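User: I'm writing a tutorial on reading structure tokens. Could you give me a worked example: one chain, its sequence, then its tokens, then a sentence or two explaining what the tokens reveal?
Assistant: Sure. Here is the example chain.
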Amino acid sequence: MLEGQKIDSRRKILQAAIAEFGEKGYEAASTNHICRQAEISKGLLFHYYKSKRTLFAEALEQCLRDVESATEGPCAQDGAAPGCMQEFFWLRMDFFAAHVHHFMILEEIFSNGTEASLPEVQPLRRRVDAIRSGRYRSFLDKHRLRPGISRETALDLLLGASESIQRKCLRRIHLLGEPAEQVLEDFREEYRMALSMLFYGMLAPTGCAGREELNAEGRN
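And here are its predicted structure tokens:
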């Protein structure tokens, strides 16, 4: 088989695997169905991937590469401005609105199911966690918090609020079938308000330099 054909076969396998694992989860996913969707033989599938676990890990790896690529932006190296937090969140939301199976796979590895316990998944799970929390942690590291508020508590609050809004938004898009553009627009103000309440309830008074920027962005 020519090198170009090998690359194309692996690409088709991973696309089919992401769809299958994302829709059904690891346990219920069928390698037979993945083969049919990728239009390849089962022998070829297991030539490239030695087991279902290996295939799942590679599908998760591809999801991570896709999300990392989609969330690269001008604020990637600077977490100080609240506007960067909003930009990062909406880059993720735009991507997940169009790639529901990626979102479902990444959600599953933080559940208590089989996916979370697979040895091949553990290092990838740490990368997912870094993507989820890195930008927020970078922001907090550049600000002084109010007395009695730890950085870990602040991080948990920011992540919890962001992911709650993310799930509600994606549920309306993918489960209720509402138009993605309108749903995303509806949630922009909710997210801006949540960030404003959290940031300026946890930051010390001298650490609120970004308040006007955040409010100005919400008016645009």
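What the tokens reveal: DSSP finds eleven helices and no strands in the chain. The longest helix spans residues 3-28.
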